[in-house]
Amino acid sequence: MHDTETLSGFIEHWRDHAPAIPDLDPLTTTAIRQSLGYLPLKLPFEIPHKAMLSEAENLRDFFVYHRAGGHHQGWRSLCLHGISSVHTENHDRYGFADRDYAGYGYTDISRFCPVSKEFFRDVFGYDRYDRVRFMLLEPGGYILPHEDVDYKQLGPVNIALSNPEGCVFAMEDWGIVPFVGGTANMIAVGHRHAVYNNSQQDRYHIIVHGARGKRWKDYIAASYRAMAGLDV
Length: 232
Description:
Layout: H1 3-14, H2 29-35, E1 38-40, H3 49-58, E2 64-65, E3 73-82, H4 99-102, E4 105-106, H5 114-123, E5 126-146, E6 157-160, E7 167-171, E8 175-176, E9 184-187, E10 193-197, E11 203-212, H6 215-227
Antiparallel strand pairs: 1-9, 2-3, 3-4, 3-5, 5-10, 5-11, 6-9, 6-11, 7-8, 7-10
């Protein structure tokens, strides 16, 4: 079976799937993270996605192909925070035993992204950042069905700076992850997932890895309650 047939079949299979939202009692961050494939985030601040999108677009020529040896197409990345702007994988992929030795920090491109840098430094509320990556999926580009880790719990935050009509993020057992520009989802990347940008426009997201600050316990609880319809 061709790659594109595998991709299309996966997306169509999960397109109309309505996930069952578990009834969690007691409601804890651990229970939420272990029970969901994705969580649309209800945050008490606005994401300046249009300005951040402009910063990413201005650097388009500097994006490098992400996981270029795989079977994905048109998937590119650039790190705002990481080992360097072009080291887009986790530190162990480059032979570093731990994150401290790898030397994560704001990269050379951050000087060209003042809005994005200020947002993560002063607003987003993580105690520590590992990789913060602009992710570009070109028109017609795709990310084949895969899982990134061998455990299924919510992890990185995926922020949509843009999400053209026709660009779909599908997840096994959970259906289509809801993305529009300016929204964010926590993603359990241990669930098999795939993306297809069936549009004529670039799709820009940001993926955030790191250690959440104390405020995130409340953000996650509020987001679950909204997803489960408990605040209606």
